[in-house]
């Protein structure tokens, strides 16, 4: 059962939340994991609310994308980001696992751009935030197919370094994937299930 919702999650089921900047492939990753049809935006920022899927033992929540949104004002962009943060804080201990999707093919470029402005890159900011509200945070490094093979280890090492800087006392859980090519999706699924098992949550009905 799928449910688009602006309201609170009903019942006592734990949550798996998927978060990330606009256009990093959250919905595509969920579709690759579950085989279920979920809305996939045609442009950045087209999703403005969470999308819920009942997977039996858990509820999967695809959060609104944050960051740059084509055709949207800065005020709207900031409002969407704050709405996502408030929703996640509202759910609190219901969150069993949080998956942050990043575009690994652009991660370094975006981080360096934000660093030049003296600002915390939004991907890293959200990794720190998710680490505060959930003991299980997985970073799905999406679009690995868009990285030259000779550069994959280089980009993944850079991603790990930045995550360690953000949350020094936590070992980053990074799973490189390509949602569009369905590369390493089974490993992502296994990593999610391992985190759920540590929380005593049954496997989802993928």
Structural write-up:
By secondary structure, this protein is α/β, with parallel strands linked by helices. The protein has a single domain, classed as P-loop containing nucleotide triphosphate hydrolases (Rossmann fold, 3-Layer(aba) Sandwich). Helix content is 38%, strand content 17%. It is built from 6 helices and 7 strands. Helix 5 links the parallel strand 6 and strand 7. The protein is globular.
SSE arrangement, N to C: EEHEEHEHHEHEH
Could you tell me the number of beta strands? 7
User: Assembly type of the shown chains?
Assistant: single chain
CATH architecture: 3-Layer(aba) Sandwich
Radius of gyration: 16 Å
**Net shape:** globular
* pLDDT < 50 stretches: 1-8, 42-47
Structural class: alpha/beta
The average pLDDT is 88
Give me the CATH fold name.
Rossmann fold
N- to C-terminal distance: 12 Å
Please supply descriptive tags for the structure shown above:
single chain, 206 residues, alpha/beta, Rossmann fold, seven-stranded mixed sheet, 6 helices, 38% helix, globular, disordered N terminus
Summarize the structure in short.
This protein is α/β, with parallel strands linked by helices and 206 residues long. The chain has helices spanning 26-34, 74-91, 107-116, 122-133, 152-166, 185-198, and strands at residues 2-4, 15-20, 51-54, 59-62, 95-103, 137-142, 173-176. It has six helices and seven strands, in the order E-E-H-E-E-H-E-H-H-E-H-E-H.
Topology of this protein?
Blueprint lengths: L1 E3 L10 E6 L5 H9 L16 E4 L4 E4 L11 H18 L3 E9 L3 H10 L5 H12 L3 E6 L9 H15 L6 E4 L8 H14 L8
Parallel strand pairs: 2-4, 2-5, 5-6, 6-7
Antiparallel strand pairs: 1-3, 3-4
């Amino acid at each position: 059962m799928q449910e688009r919702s602006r309201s609170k999650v009903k019942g006592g089921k734990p949550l798996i939340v998927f978060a990330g900047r606009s256009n990093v492939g959250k919905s595509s990753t969920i579709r690759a994991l579950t085989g279920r049809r979920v809305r996939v935006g045609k442009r950045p920022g087209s999703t403005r609310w969470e999308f819920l899927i009942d997977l039996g033992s858990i509820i999967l929540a695809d959060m609104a994308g944050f960051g740059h949104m084509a055709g949207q004002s800065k005020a709207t962009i900031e409002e969407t980001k704050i709405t996502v943060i408030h929703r996640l804080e509202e759910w609190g201990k219901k969150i069993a696992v949080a998956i942050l999707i990043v575009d690994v093919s652009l991660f370094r470029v975006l981080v360096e751009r934000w660093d030049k402005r003296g600002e915390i890159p939004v991907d890293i900011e959200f990794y720190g935030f998710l680490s505060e509200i959930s003991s299980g945070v997985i970073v799905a490094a999406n679009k690995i197919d868009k990285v030259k093979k000779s550069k994959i280890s280089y980009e993944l090492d850079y991603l790990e370094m930045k995550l360690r800087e953000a949350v020094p006392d936590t070992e980053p859980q990074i799973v490189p994937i390509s949602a569009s090519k369905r590369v390493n999706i089974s490993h992502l699924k296994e990593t999610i299930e391992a985190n759920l098992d540590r929380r005593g949550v049954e496997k989802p009905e993928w």
